[in-house]
Automatic annotation (TrEMBL):
Keyword Hydrolase carried by entry: yes
Major enzyme class: hydrolase
Keyword annotations of the record: Carbohydrate metabolism, Glycosidase, Hydrolase, Signal
EC number: 3.2.1.55
Family matches, as Gene3D superfamilies: Glycosidases (3.20.20.80), Golgi alpha-mannosidase II (2.60.40.1180)
InterPro entries: Alpha-L-AF_C, ASD1_cat, GH, Glyco_hydro_b
Catalysed reaction, written as an equation: Hydrolysis of terminal non-reducing alpha-L-arabinofuranoside residues in alpha-L-arabinosides
Signal peptide feature range: 1-24
Record-stated family: Belongs to the glycosyl hydrolase 51 family.
Subunit relationships: Homohexamer; trimer of dimers.
Domain Alpha-L-arabinofuranosidase C-terminal: 322-511
Protein name, UniProt field: non-reducing end alpha-L-arabinofuranosidase
Length: 518
């Protein structure tokens, strides 16, 4: 904890649910902002995910070295690199996903004309030429100034294959794999820290039981490193699907804690898994159900963390939510296996709520990956030939980047209720942090589809300077298109007043605000 950045003030948030900007009822929301707790909001919470799926890699990140229409560096789109660097993305997960447990990394190295093809049996049945492989991905991460997160093949691979991949990527001395890397044009190792040991072992990664997978994991993790993990690998076990708490219990009990640094969790927000509904043109009911599913992340994090606390009270092992986001039906006329969907203000709400959950539980959640980066699921970027657009989700991630590696300011929120057909959700969701520059950042989301919120804050003392940005739009279904790429983007937020220690602000329906107090 950096005591020079401690700002001992108390913020009390009083919120009333409004309709047409008039008070309908008085609900007291208490948000206590105290001195930073010493918990860092790990920047890796803001990670991303790039699977060989649809047009995420081919046609998204990678357009080929011979492309003369789209500016690129070694085949990677320059506009994509610039946009993602603006997000300060801390890590990027690859090559899957389900694809990871069918991917054999040695097929993606060496001269590209000599590489064997692979049928992507999980996603659309397309045949890929392996032109984007280990060198391409790791070099792209250097372009992005981000850390790679490699997901190893446990389902159809062997222990030696993953051990060789670690040596190929990380060994700087003489060894068969290091020599092979040099033969393929890379002298210095990339020093990859983050390694996933399989993916969704309970499903597409092998349909294993938790007990069986925990033994498999121990074997793989053992041969990835030495006695004491002197290479500093961050090994991530394939964790639970949503609320499978028994899976978490079994892994925490059976895996030696010196063999694991992270335990994964996957959860997607949707209407119903077998009836996901459209990405645009959704109904009020579908919106509310999606937000119920998104808010379930808070319960999942708390309950999985409680199990982990039983076996790891010092919280050495991180909860890694390496797949999260909204999942809907694909856009009409697109390959069902490509998972291409538009991105509306609903997705901005999912992002804001979920990131606030991660921030507030950053003592255990220390890494996460939005699914996925480009053209797949809740993407931050969509591309079409030479065009590229930034989605509402992109803008939320960009607004929230102020929390990366900042000190968490604990808070509690007792929110006004978002009520729909007799069911309720908290309308307001928030998190706060203080950065190394001493500035306090508060991110607030109003998920109510129709009602604005009035927020009254007591910040303990008058702030010298207050600035803010807001993401909002006229319609919940609004989204950026290739014809109107800038319909939704952050604008300055000035709808607040300050009187001494009192700060009052008004939040439009389905909006995201980030305030900076100096």
């Amino acid at each position: 904890m950096n005591k020079t950045n401690t700002r001992p003030f108390l913020l009390l948030l009083l919120l009333a649910c409004t309709s047409n900007w008039s008070f309908a009822q008085q609900n007291k929301t208490s948000v206590k902002l105290q001195a930073p707790s010493g918990t860092t909001i790990n920047k890796h919470i803001y990670g991303h995910f790039a699977e060989h799926l649809g047009r995420c890699i081919y046609g998204g990140f990678y357009v080929g070295e011979d492309n003369e229409r789209i500016p690129h560096t070694a085949g990677v789109r320059n506009d994509v690199v610039a946009a993602l660097k603006e997000l300060h993305i801390p890590n990027l997960r690859w090559p899957g996903g389900c694809f990871a447990d069918t991917y054999h990394w040695k097929d993606g190295i060496g001269p590209k004309p000599d590489r064997p093809t692979i049928v992507n049996s999980w996603w659309g049945g397309v045949t890929e030429d392996n032109s984007f492989g280990t060198h391409d991905f790791l070099n792209m991460c250097e372009l992005l100034e981000t850390e790679p997160y490699l997901s190893g093949n446990v389902g159809s691979g062997e222990v030696q294959e993953l051990a060789d991949w670690v040596q190929y990527a990380n060994h700087g001395g003489e060894s068969p794999m290091a020599d092979l890397r040099r033969e393929n044009g890379r002298e210095e190792p990339w020093k990859v820290k983050f390694w996933g040991v399989g993916n969704e072992a309970w499903g597409c990664g092998g349909n294993m039981t938790a007990s069986y997978y925990s033994d498999v994991y121990r074997k793989y993790a053992t041969f990835m490193s030495d006695w004491t993990n002197t290479g500093g690998l961050f090994r991530i076990a394939s964790g639970a699907n949503v609320d499978d708490y028994e899976w978490t219990e079994t892994l925490m009990k059976n895996i030696k804690h010196n063999l694991v640094e992270g335990l994964a969790l996957h959860h997607y927000a949707n209407v119903e898994w077998n009836s996901k509904g459209p990405a645009t043109g959704y109904s009020d009911t579908q919106y509310f159900k999606t937000m119920q599913s998104a808010w379930k992340m808070d319960e999942l994090v708390r309950k999985h963390s409680a199990i982990m606390d039983k076996y790891d009270p010092k919280k050495r092992i991180a909860l890694v939510v390496d797949e999260w986001g909204g999942w809907y039906e694909v856009e009409e006329g697109t390959n069902p296996g490509f998972l291409y969907q538009q991105n509306t203000m609903r997705d901005a709400m999912i992002a804001g709520v979920t990131l606030n959950v991660f921030n507030n539980h950053s003592d255990r959640v220390r890494m996460a990956n939005l699914a996925q980066t480009i053209n797949v699921l809740q993407a931050v970027i969509l591309t079409k030939d030479e065009q590229m657009i930034l989605t509402p989700t992109y803008h939320v991630m960009e607004m929230y980047k102020v929390h990366q590696d900042a000190q968490l300011i604990p808070l509690s929120v007792e929110s006004a209720l978002y009520t729909f057909e007799g069911e309720t959700l908290p309308a307001v969701h928030a998190s706060a942090s203080v950065g190394k520059d001493g500035k306090t950042h508060i991110s607030i989301v109003n998920i109510d589809a129709t009602k604005a919120q009035r927020v009254d804050m007591n910040v303990g003392k008058k702030a010298k300077n207050i600035s803010g940005r807001i993401l909002k739009s006229a319609s919940l279904n609004d989204h950026n298109t290739f014809e109107k790429p800038d319909l939704i983007q952050p604008v300055a937020y000035k709808d607040f007043t300050q009187k001494e220690e009192q700060l009052s602000l008004e939040l439009p329906p389905f909006s995201v605000v980030v305030l900076t107090l100096d």
